Amino acid sequence: ERVSSLYDAAEKARLERFEAARTRIRQQLDANLSSIDSDYASAVRQAGISARQSALRNEEKLALLGLNMSAKTGAATSGMAARLGAMLAEEGITMVCRIAVDNQYRGDLNSLSQSRLAARSAAETAAAASEASAQSGYESAAESAALSQAQTLLSQYNAERDYSLSMAGLTGFLDGTPTL
Predict the structure, then answer these.
(1) Cβ distance 54 to 101 under 8 Å?
(2) Which is it for strands 177-178 and 173-174: parallel, antiparallel or unpaired?
């Protein structure tokens, strides 16, 4: 009985260690996912800033180009038709540039989203692998302890039987029955 209580105490300690490891793995996963989400939000903000800066640079380039185009077209022709033609040309170029910046921004956001999903998946897979490893270790230790307990009980039974047989040889009685 004393041996059994020792094994029970060891089993309880193993279970507590396993649960503590499982809790640490989950806490680490939560921290990793939080970090991934924070990095994603930061990258999305940065992509927005970059898109706005790119749009402003394009506007500045087009403004410079528009001034040059107005000067060139103004010299060739005069009047409302020339100004209207320059304005339409500039507006078309501006729209194309805005669409290009918007497409780039959307592509960046899609890429960031895919990276975020891949990182989350990798973190969850690693946590699951760690938890499976901890569970496997716990189960192996429990099986080993059960086997050791069974071997100890068998050894104890054999020792008691050998003692009884030795006593029977000395006294002539085995469990109250004469042996001769």
Answers:
(1) yes
(2) antiparallel
What is the spatial distance between Cα 36 and Cα 28, in angstroms, rounded to a whole number? 12
Query: Cβ atoms within 10 A of the Cβ of 74, count?
Result: 13
Q: What are the structure tokens assigned to 176, written together?
A: 């109250």
Place of tokens 């429990």: 142
The secondary structure of residue 177, as a DSSP letter, is E
Backbone phi, psi, residue 18, to 5°: -65, -45
- 178 - beta bridge partners? 173
User: 136-141: long-range contacts at Cβ-Cβ below 8 A with a sequence spacing of 24 or more?
Assistant: 137/18, 138/14, 138/15, 138/17, 138/18, 141/14
Question: Are 169 and 175 a contacting pair, CB within 8 Å?
Answer: no
Q: What is the pLDDT of residues 92-123, one digit of tens each?
A: 666 667 788 888 889 999 999 999 999 999 99
Over residues 7-26, mean pLDDT: 91
Tally: H helices and E strands in the chain: 2, 2
Using the Cα atoms of residue 166, residue 171, residue 176 and residue 180 in order, give the sign of their dihedral: positive
Burial class (CB in 10 A: 0-12, 13-18, 19+), 54: middle
pTM across the whole model? 0.62
